[in-house]
Amino acid sequence: MSARAQPAIVIMPDPTGLAHEGAQRFVDAAVSAVGEGRPFRVALSGGSTPKALFETLAHEPYRSQIDWTQVEVFFSDERFVPADSPDSNYGMARAALLKHVPISELLVHAIPTVNLTPYEAASLYASTIRRAFQAADSVLPSFDLIMLGLGPDGHTASLFPGSEALNIQDQIVAANYVAKLDSWRITFTYPLLNAARCVTFLVQGAEKAEKVQQVLRGDSNLPAAGVHPTAGEPVWLLEQAAAGPEASDMVRKGT
Length: 255
Ligand code: 6PG
Hints:
Elements lengths: L7 E5 L2 H21 L4 E5 L5 H8 L13 E5 L1 E3 L9 H8 L21 H16 L11 E4 L24 E6 L4 E6 L1 H4 L5 E5 L5 H8 L18 E5 H4 L12
Parallel strand pairs: 1-9, 2-3, 2-5, 5-8, 8-9
Antiparallel strand pairs: 4-7, 6-7
Helix pairs in contact: 1-2
Bound molecules: 6-phosphogluconic acid.
The site of 6-phosphogluconic acid has 15 residues, from strand 4.
């Protein structure tokens, strides 16, 4: 079995540099996909970290580098709350990015979270993804880019330690009850994450540094350590504070 390639690690000095690096890579991935004759299908991450990236992307010089008519947006996970909830990942992305760019609402696929059960939501979203990719059930849709964050417990998307969705191999989207939060989440599963052309982790904050190192060392107790796209190892975009003191042997940029 061939040794797994090393992930690309890019360290930026501060959250602003991280946002600009992430925005530029988003642009590059979009231009690449469209240049290869397909729409750019991207799954946005949730939480608070990507907000600055989204806001940066909604402004020049990045905004006009993208043909937004060729962009189709999905979400790698969602809290099971209404879109107008302050906890909604869709709501945050809409306020920070989507309402500021000329993207058709028909090409923005929020995860449904009202008037249905979490299981119905997961099933419906999986169908939405398959329809967009025109992918049969036997085929894993391959996103051009999936953005992910890293939680303080090593979770990513809504794959939390000890949660049932970690074990799902026959679905691309799962309903996942997170006991410690006493709440439901809808999340991409490992099969879908690992079918992506590119997965990028965006991490900031010194409180994440230890988990970043544990994940990069392959600590299988941490859900983020299970993300290994067949197409290539994830790209880690790290703020210096999240890279920790061991970052000296990492690829540095902008520092
Ligand atoms: C979510 C996310 C989750 C997030 C991490 C990091 O819905 O919360 O998808 O995986 O990326 O928890 O969150 P912060 O960026 O807020 O630290």
